[in-house]
Amino acid sequence: MTDLAKTAANALTLLEGLVTKATKAGATAADAVLVEGASISIAHRLGQLEKLERAEGGDIGLRVLIGGRQALVSSGDRTTAGMDALVERALAMAKAVPEDPYIGLADPAQLAKVLPNIDCCDPQEPSPEVLTELVRAMEDEARAQPGITNSEGAEASWGLSTVALVGSNGFSHAYHSSHSSIGVAVVAGDGETGMESDYDYSSAVYFADLRDALEIGREAGRRAARRVGAKRIATGRIPVVYDPRVARGLIGHAIGAINGGGIARGTSFLKEYMDKPVFGPGVTIIEDPHRTRGMRSKPCDAEGLANKRRALFDKGVLTSWILDLRTSRQLGLESTGHAGRGTGSAPSPSATNIWMEPGTLTPEALIGEIDEGLYVTDLVGQGVNGLTGDYSRGAAGFRIEKGQLTTPVSEITIAGNLKDMFLSLTPANDLVLRHGTDSPTVRIDGMTIAGG
Description:
Distance between the termini: 66 Å
Largest sheet: 6 strands, antiparallel
Structural class: alpha+beta
Radius of gyration: 24 Å
Number of domains: 2
Strand order of the largest sheet: 3-2-1-4-5-6
């Protein structure tokens, strides 16, 4: 048995014993989750190593139910006395809380029967020396780009986690996941020309799948330098093109609006849109929890239910809410297998790997049709109203003039309503799957710009 297999087996044995303790002590049902792992992080700035840290640790979360009452507790103490205290505390809390008619573990018949291999764990840990050399080379490359005057630093990290879940309903499973990332941020300009910063980074499940560190350094330097001299633009109503790294946020707003929590409370601007067009017919948004080496891949949801690939928006039409057991019971529906959970929280709906399918036009074609517009590379602020869909964000980027990107702009606000924005959204054909949420370049016509 490998070390990882032993770790998983030990985690399941520990949780099975904890759940048994809870049911013997009076819980009508119980489940327990364990998350543990190790990580390395390194930071480098202006040629000097600033941070080299390694961390190891773990936590256990226990959920007990007494009829319609539920309590959750967590602890890092794995001794017998610690487990006994955890059970005692959870049961005492459950007896003191109000009843909730919608809580409860999955019925055994609902549990996933076959769990796929999602290849989400890289067992090879990179050495501190390798990570240190990466951040040094990446920052040096970024600082070497024309116009760069300072650095905010470069970082690299690696982590490996074990996740285990055991329930009194018979579910028992553990899996491992890993995550690697590198990134750098630099400053361009001076007191006379104005100072601007920008960044680039890469994340992956497997360390070997990270983008080239020198490429990341060059791109961060280029992005920062081209922003120097940014000005405001006149207020008006113009087409806006979102760079892929900010277009991902638009997908996040759509996914947030179909979360079962907001739907059950009636607080989402899309609550009446099931089986109706939300986007234009050229937009399809896919979720795939089993994507090989996906950043958010997992074999099942946090309640032991099967999850699957699906089109959440199919040719513009909303096809599914994002539901766990509790929200599905509130709505009188079946769970969609979207439960997520931490050691200190109850299950709640959450999505996995999401992306917008590419369109047919190149980014150059999307931009080329615009006589006067805005290309957005950065957004600031959280001005999105989930109840109404009203959208207002600070932005920076570049003017579009006669189909070309020209001068940098900043300190402006872009505004609209997500319902209108989604319907007028056109995706380009440049989708690259790199993150948990991914988007191609997108164009939205008729947004309001507040400048100077």
